[in-house]
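Input (structure):
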């Protein structure tokens, strides 16, 4: 089994209260003199107190088009990614030269050379390090990245692999777009990064986290247009369908129960639920679908309130918080799960 040696999460440098972000969105997205009560209501409903953003608030009005926003992404993602991986390796007691595979996931910017390639020289990774840049998985990217990292280490159990997620969601906000989807997104998403360092089963050394036992991916039919991006001249325009919680309620329970059943487990056996905090309605749908006990998703709700939805990075932050603040009993199973465009679900079975 793959063994998690360290998990680290970082946040973008500029922290702002939700009310200040709402005021900025009103200035940049609504027509002059428009009634902002719907915006205020949507941002309150997100239940987010504050978020970290890549740029100072006033700078978002000066980003002129997709190119400028993407240039800001490349610079900031490389800086934040380097800091995150460097600290994760330190926590794992490893050096950059120990890394055999670097998996990078993001859905908030694009680069060629990819961000992972830009990090090789900066971090001192070996020039023969294997790289897997992944785009398009959205909020499911952290869980899917763990799954692909696990696949690799099953075949190379003497090696070390690193997963890096960087999501700078604020750089995708669309100016002059008062659509409900954009207003919801501007009230929900924040900027951050997460990294996981993992060892194959035959690689000795410090192990601070759980083992990865198994993974599962699931795409749901006829749901491809409810979540994702429309690529416009202005950049990534969010697609955020109101039917997402209903899709979760309809499908998630059967997938989770079938996955656990294959390992002789039931949902009641799971000692910790490491769940991506898609939003208040998504968390409610997950809790209802799986009939989870009170408090099972408290860390996800706390993360959402403290920093917002960091897309693929959030589930890695919640994994770190689980290890730091609520470590489950040794030997018990845990389940890490996240959902994203497709519409897709990613499940990772852990053992603490």
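Output (sequence):
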């Amino acid at each position: 089994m793959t063994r998690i040696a360290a998990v680290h999460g970082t946040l973008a440098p500029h922290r702002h209260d939700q009310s200040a972000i709402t005021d900025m969105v009103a200035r940049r997205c609504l027509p002059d003199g428009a009634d902002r009560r719907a915006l205020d209501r949507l941002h309150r409903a997100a239940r987010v107190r504050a978020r970290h953003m890549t740029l100072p608030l006033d700078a978002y009005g000066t980003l002129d088009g997709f190119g400028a926003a993407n240039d800001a992404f490349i610079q900031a993602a490389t800086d934040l990614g380097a800091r995150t991986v460097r600290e994760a390796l330190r926590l794992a007691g490893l050096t950059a030269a120990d890394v055999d595979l670097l998996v990078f996931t993001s859905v908030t910017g694009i680069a060629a050379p990819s961000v992972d390639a830009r990090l090789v020289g900066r971090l001192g990774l070996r020039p023969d390090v294997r790289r897997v840049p992944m785009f398009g998985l959205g909020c499911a990217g952290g869980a899917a990245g763990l799954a692909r990292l696990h696949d690799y280490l099953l075949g190379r159990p003497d090696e070390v692999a690193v997963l890096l997620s960087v999501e700078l969601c604020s750089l995708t906000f669309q100016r002059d777009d008062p659509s409900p989807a954009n207003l919801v997104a501007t009230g929900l998403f924040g900027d951050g990064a997460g990294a996981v360092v993992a060892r194959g089963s035959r690689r000795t050394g410090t192990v601070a986290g759980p083992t990865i036992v198994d993974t599962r991916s699931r795409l749901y039919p006829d749901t491809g247009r409810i979540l994702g991006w429309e690529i416009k001249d202005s950049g990534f325009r969010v697609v955020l369908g109101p039917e997402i919680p209903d899709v979760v309620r309809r499908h998630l329970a059967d997938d989770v129960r079938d996955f656990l059943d294959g390992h002789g487990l039931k949902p009641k056996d799971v000692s910790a639920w490491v769940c991506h905090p898609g939003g208040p309605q998504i968390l409610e749908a997950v809790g209802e679908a799986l009939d989870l006990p009170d408090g099972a998703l408290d860390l996800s709700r706390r993360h959402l309130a403290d920093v917002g939805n960091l897309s693929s990075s959030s589930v890695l932050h919640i994994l770190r918080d689980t290890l730091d603040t609520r470590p489950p009993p040794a030997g018990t199973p845990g389940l890490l799960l996240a959902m994203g465009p497709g519409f897709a679900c990613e499940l990772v079975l852990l053992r603490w």
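Notes: The first strand starts at residue 2 and ends at 11. The radius of gyration is 19 Å.
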